[in-house]
């Protein structure tokens, strides 16, 4: 017998399993430097976004990662829901050793810490 | 029974399973045709929580999950006996030791298992159902609009800013001891009193509210779950009453009237039914 409070947890697990069948997600942690390919509306090719994961908010099927990068001299942080059908592929290129779960301090440091080729 | 009356069964006597006889009226569980003025029953659900999903076009749909737990018709009210037509639905389970004797007697006389929540839904004469009919989640069609009635979360004794949206006073610049107060409540000697219905702090929440035109996104008949888009009143675990929408009426041919009867040929475990989202991708630019 299932407890009433577990219904949402069970549904979220089921949604995550269905999303995992379509694409394989690596283990993502703050400090990973990743390359993300997503499908944008009205564009045929997949868009690419690179950066360092500075935060991961876990909430079932709407687990999001916040990715930061310096683009054309401007710091850009984008939040991606990793189980969304629009996000087709995530690859981990490197890992930077960090001692925090949320790397918001990178906003106040030098731009070279958030630049990735 | 120590009474002077002879022990002869009277037509008004309560037999188990014969509670539907309201003055000789026989109500059958048969599918019917929905007229323009017909109203069918609602359903009692339990709010499980909220989550979000992406539909087939990639748009995000936040939904509330309602669990329709064992809805059974407990009493039929007809014009001959009560003066109006209504169906009393019961939801949930309850032990006999947790119910009062009058409540237990009511369930026993109707021949219906013991329920946790009873609610009456007014219907038209052609939508009556016999006592003991189960109403499942398939009573609703994904894609239709419903009205949801529930008791909102209680906020306790709330101040003016939370309860009525007052702006309060500046946090600095010399404002003394009144940053969140309601300010003035009236004029001076004329009228010399505070008008009635002046907005003041008080108890907020814990009242019944109706949210209208909620879109039914998905139905899970195997687990009796109803997915409604958006928010509904009340905390998790509270009872909600779901009825067909009065303003955005669906196509009469699509709704099962008076309710959905499971046929023998259908499989027991059905896949979840999702609302029809159309064939054109809404995100593609129309050239």
Automatic annotation (TrEMBL), chain A:
It comes from Aegilops tauschii subsp. strangulata. The keyword Hydrolase does not apply. InterPro entries: Ribosomal_bL19 (IPR001857), Ribosomal_bL19_sf (IPR038657), Translation_prot_SH3-like_sf (IPR008991). This is Ribosomal protein L19. Belongs to the bacterial ribosomal protein bL19 family. Keywords: Ribonucleoprotein, Ribosomal protein. One of its GO terms (molecular function) is mRNA binding. It comes from the Eukaryota. GO terms for biological process: translation. Transmembrane segments: none annotated. GO terms for cellular component: ribonucleoprotein complex; ribosome. Pfam families: Ribosomal_L19. SUPFAM superfamilies: Translation proteins SH3-like domain.
TrEMBL record, chain B:
Signal peptide: none annotated. Gene3D superfamilies: 3.30.160.810, Translation factors. Keywords: Mitochondrion, Ribonucleoprotein, Ribosomal protein, Transit peptide. Residues 178-187 have a biased composition (Polar residues). NCBIfam families: L3_bact. Belongs to the universal ribosomal protein uL3 family. PROSITE patterns: RIBOSOMAL_L3. The keyword Ribonucleoprotein applies. PANTHER family: 50S RIBOSOMAL PROTEIN L3, LARGE RIBOSOMAL SUBUNIT PROTEIN UL3M. One of its GO terms (molecular function) is structural constituent of ribosome. It holds the Pfam family Ribosomal_L3. GO terms for biological process: translation. It is found in: Mitochondrion. GO terms for cellular component: mitochondrial large ribosomal subunit. The keyword NAD does not apply. This is Large ribosomal subunit protein uL3m. InterPro entries: Ribosomal_uL3, Ribosomal_uL3_bac/org-type, Ribosomal_uL3_CS, Transl_B-barrel_sf. Residues 1-32, 170-192 are annotated as: Disordered.
